[in-house]
User: Fold these one by one.
Assistant:
Number 1:
Amino acid sequence: MQNPNQTAVSHFFLEGLMYTAEHPSLFFLLFLLIYSITLTGNLLILVTVGSDPHLCSPMYHFLGHLSFLDACLSTVTVPKVMAGLLTVDGKVISFEGCAVQLYCFHFLASTECFLYTLMAYDRYLAICQPLRYPVAMNRRMCAGLAGLTWTVGALHSAIHTSLTFRLPYCCPHRIAYFFCDIPPVLKLACADTTVNELVMLANIGIVAAGCLVLIVVSYVFIVAAVLRIRTAQGRRRAFSTCTSHLTVVLLYYVPPVCIYLQPRSGGAGAGAPAVFYTIITPMLNPFIYTLRNKEVKRALQRLLGRGSRESPAGSPPPLTCAGTLHGPAKKTTIPIAKWGGKIVQGGIGATELPLGHELFSLPSAK
């Protein structure tokens, strides 16, 4: 039976960001620019990964999922913020709309958390266990793991949303925040919120911190394996495939921890870190991944028509493929597997080549 006090609030009023009140038009243009860059960058990465046959390895498969998540995450919050900057009515959100926004936000954010962990595991297998990599991360396994992150994220968000909106809410109905999130919404509840706060802290302690620990452990093994590589070029290539992932992980984890570990803190105080990880980070991720990844940059050039589909003249052959390398080092063979009609091999970078090309591998690092 529905609590009558809960029906006393049919809508909420989003107070927005305090520092935007004096110059709303200027901040509207700023958020519009950020949102446009976010959508353009992430959708461009998504189209590039989906259409370029050279980017068919698991690493780029997961990158496509991340770009889609970032585009959706920005769409959940930014348009409503811009509407509130234009008119007072734009700050009003219905009770049901608030529940939908909270669910979508935590669904996308938690799925991204699990995806970062999966990407770290992918890098661990590629660098630390290259012989197992093509088999362990085949096309079916990648699709299954990616689908699992979406499923767990949906269930995780459903639990938080149901616990939050089962509470009775009554006036005042002003949310001291720029979107519907758990800490500011709980402040308006007319009942004890201890259970909700404990669940939220458990979420940080078990889910988010657990994923972070798995990421850190993966990179401890990765660093140890990379340091055993004798050639400086091999070490640079290995680290280049990991630094971008580590950067976005730090940008993702630090601001939410500052917010959700202090559920009773004021909305204004949490506004700055929230803006960073809900609005700024999705805009930065495409640049972080492309600036340090030559394969993605070449694929973008091919997509935009500014580059040739052939490798540039004088460019060295790929360093991490199946086959043998003759020279001072011993012959090394790494197994291969087909991924969408292309050869994908274990090893650092997990580079792929069209069928029939001559393939090479790094000297064994012992």
Number 2:
Amino acid sequence: KFREIYNFAFGWAREK
């Protein structure tokens, strides 16, 4: 289960 965390971090970093 690593893609879910990666997706969440990526989405948050992309919006910031």
Number 3:
Amino acid sequence: QWDKYLEEWEIAKIEWMGILTLEALLSLLKFNRI
């Protein structure tokens, strides 16, 4: 059960990093347009 929890956490962490990276890139693009 613990292994399954860790596995899901790893996946969630990767998804979060992807979302944060996208947000950061979008912010940079908006900032550069100004």
